C-alpha cells in the first residue's frame, strides 16, 4: 500500500513538470536575468510596507484574534469592484482569501462534486490542474485560437458534457496577455445559458482576474460578471502590488446572480473555507486593504520593458504576442523546442519559462517583473539564441 493518498499522487503528477523545471533551472549562480515566475526583483512598494506596518499596530485587545472576512476589507473591496465593474456589489458578496490561489480552490470546492468537470484554457495557468486533480475533479482543456489567443467558443461548446460545472475564463490571460472583448464574453454567456438548459444543470464561470488592473495602452476591461450572472470572480493583490508572498485576495459573487443562488453560495462558503484549513488571510493584511486598494506597481516602467523586449525580439525574428495586459510575453521558441531553447539561455544565466509548463512545448514565456538591468543583460543571449 502506498503511504501517500491518491489525491496527493494525482496532484503531484499534475504539477510534476513545474517541480522538475524548478529543480533544473532555478539554481542561484551569480549575475542572472530571471524571467520565470512573477516574483519581485527590487524593493517592495513603499506604500505597501507602510500599510502593513500601520495595520500591524493593535487598536483593540482582539486585533489578532481569529478572523474570518474583516468588514473593513469586504466593504472596501465591494466599493472598489462596484466602481470598477459598474455593478452593485455588496460586502456580503465578497469573502477574503489567501490570494487568488485559495479563492480558486474555494470556488471549486463550493461548486463541484468528485467527477465534475472544469473547462479551462490551453495554454493556461499550470496550477488549475493540480488543484482539481487533488480533489477528484476533472480537468478539460480547450484550446485558444492559435493565432489570436481569443476564446474558442466552438471548442468550449464541444467540450461541454452533463458533468460540466465550471468554465474558467482568465482575463487578462496568463501567459498570452490577451484581454477578452465584451462582445466575445457575451457570446460565451449565451452559449453557457443554452448549454445549461440542455444538460439540466447550471454551468458557472470562474473569472480568474488577478491581472485585471495590469493593462497596457489604455485597453479596457470587461469582467464576465458583467454579462453572465452565474460568475464568481477571484482576485489577488499580489500581482498589482508585486508581492506574491503576502497572501491576500478574494472571491466575489456577481451581484447579477439571482438572490437565491447567491444566498446558497454564501451559506456554503464559510464551512468550505474552514474545511480548507481556515482559508482566511491574516488579520494584518485584511486591515491593510483600504490602503492597499490605492497602490499599484509602476505600469509605465512595465510598459517600457515590454516594448524593449518585444521590439528587440521581433527584430531578431521571434514571433511574439504583444500583451494587452498581465506582465508576460508569450512567443514561439526558435527551433520549436522550448526546453532546448530554455537550456541554451540558462547556460548564459538567462532564465525563461518553457511552454512545457503550459502543455505547449513549442512556446515560451518571459516575465516582465525582471529589472530593466536584467533585460539589458539578457538581450545578447536572446539575440544569439534566435539563430
From TrEMBL:
A GO term for molecular function: transaminase activity
Alphabetical list of InterPro entries matching this protein: Aminotransferase_I/II_large, PyrdxlP-dep_Trfase, PyrdxlP-dep_Trfase_major
TM stretches of this protein: none
SUPFAM superfamilies per record: PLP-dependent transferases
Source organism, top-level taxon: Bacteria
UniProt entry tagged with the keyword Transferase: yes
Name of the protein in question: Aminotransferase class I/II-fold pyridoxal phosphate-dependent enzyme
Amino acid at each position: 500500500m502506498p503511504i501517500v493518498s491518491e489525491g496527493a499522487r494525482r496532484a503531484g503528477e499534475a504539477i510534476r513538470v513545474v517541480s522538475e523545471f524548478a529543480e533544473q533551472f532555478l539554481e542561484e549562480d551569480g549575475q542572472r536575468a530571471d524571467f520565470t515566475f512573477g516574483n519581485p526583483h527590487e524593493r517592495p512598494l513603499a506604500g505597501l510596507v507602510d500599510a502593513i506596518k500601520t495595520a500591524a499596530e493593535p487598536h483593540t485587545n482582539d486585533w489578532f484574534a481569529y478572523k474570518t472576512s474583516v468588514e473593513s476589507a469586504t466593504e472596501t473591496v465591494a466599493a472598489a469592484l462596484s466602481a470598477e465593474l459598474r455593478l452593485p456589489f455588496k460586502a456580503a458578496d465578497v469573502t477574503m482569501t489567501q490570494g487568488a490561489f485559495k479563492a480558486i480552490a474555494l470556488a471549486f470546492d463550493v461548486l463541484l462534486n468528485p467527477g465534475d468537470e472544469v473547462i479551462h484554457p490551453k495554454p493556461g495557468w499550470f496550477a488549475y490542474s493540480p488543484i482539481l486533480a487533488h480533489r477528484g475533479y476533472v480537468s478539460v482543456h480547450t484550446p485558444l485560437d492559435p493565432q489570436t489567443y481569443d476564446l474558442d467558443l466552438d471548442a468550449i461548446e464541444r467540450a461541454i458534457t452533463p458533468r460540466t460545472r465550471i468554465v474558467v475564463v482568465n482575463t487578462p490571460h496568463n501567459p498570452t496577455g490577451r484581454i477578452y472583448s465584451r462582445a466575445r464574453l457575451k457570446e460565451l454567456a449565451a452559449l453557457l445559458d443554452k448549454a445549461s438548459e440542455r444538460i439540466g444543470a447550471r454551468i458557472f464561470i470562474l473569472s480568474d482576474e488577478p491581472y485585471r488592473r495590469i493593462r497596457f495602452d489604455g485597453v479596457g476591461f470587461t469582467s464576465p460578471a458583467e454579462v453572465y450572472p452565474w460568475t464568481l470572480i477571484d482576485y489577488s493583490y499580489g500581482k498589482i502590488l508585486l508581492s506574491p508572498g503576502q497572501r491576500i485576495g478574494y472571491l466575489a459573487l456577481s451581484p447579477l446572480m439571482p438572490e437565491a443562488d447567491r444566498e446558497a453560495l454564501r451559506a456554503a462558503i464559510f464551512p468550505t473555507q474552514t474545511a480548507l484549513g481556515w482559508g482566511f488571510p491574516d488579520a494584518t493584511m485584511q486591515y491593510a486593504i483600504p490602503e492597499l486598494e490605492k497602490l499599484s506597481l509602476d505600469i509605465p516602467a512595465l510598459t517600457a520593458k515590454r516594448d524593449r523586449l518585444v521590439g528587440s525580439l521581433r527584430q531578431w525574428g521571434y514571433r511574439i504576442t504583444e500583451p494587452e495586459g498581465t506582465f508576460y510575453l508569450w512567443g514561439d521558441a526558435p527551433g520549436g523546442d522550448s526546453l532546448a531553447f530554455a537550456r541554451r539561455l540558462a547556460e548564459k544565466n538567462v532564465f525563461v519559462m518553457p511552454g512545457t509548463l503550459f502543455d505547449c512545448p513549442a512556446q515560451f514565456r518571459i516575465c516582465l517583473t525582471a529589472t530593466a538591468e536584467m533585460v539589458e543583460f539578457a538581450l545578447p543571449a536572446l539575440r544569439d539564441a534566435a539563430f
